[in-house]
Amino acid sequence: xxxxxxxxxxxxxxxxxxxxxxxxxxxxxxxxxxxxxxxxxxxxxxxxxxxxxxxxxxxxxxxxxxxxxxxxxxxxxxxxxxxxxxxxxxxxxxxxxxxxxxxxxxxxxxxxxxxxxxxxxxxxxxxxxxxxxxxxxxxxxxxxxxxxxxxxxxxx
Length: 156
Ligand code: FES
Ligand code: FES
Prior knowledge:
Blueprint: E1 2-7, E2 10-15, H1 22-29, E3 48-51, E4 54-57, E5 70-72, H2 81-92, H3 102-115, H4 121-128, H5 138-150
Parallel strand pairs: 1-5
Antiparallel strand pairs: 1-2, 3-4, 3-5
Bound molecules: FE2/S2 (inorganic) cluster (2 copies).
One FE2/S2 (inorganic) cluster binds at residues 37-40, 42-47, 57, 59.
């Protein structure tokens, strides 16, 4: 069955089971491997994308539930003003170690700063608590979020 999706500003039609998780539609049907598979159970955050600007776990999101909504992935996030500031801060502070979790981390951080341009430490910890990093880059992640928040135009 065909489902029409809006991915990164483009309308895409996917002919597959409407119960198929968005993560696998992105990776298998749309050839967008930037969004990662970690746990498959909404526990690690590796698969985080935005749906209508909010961070969601694509591994447990059937594509039927995002029909007609705006999906943004790591491939596109740096074209958004806040996503660009986050991506720049990530690069400047050399946040990633192995890198596997980082697409999800950037998506969650961008959703946070889009909703709260100047988050407190507690708000950062709360927003990022579902994104697990086995390399323990948490201190650099928090520093990069603060740097992005302090960047001129971050909330534009
Ligand atoms: S793969 Fe989706 S939360 Fe872990
Ligand atoms: S950088 Fe390796 S899992 Fe996060």
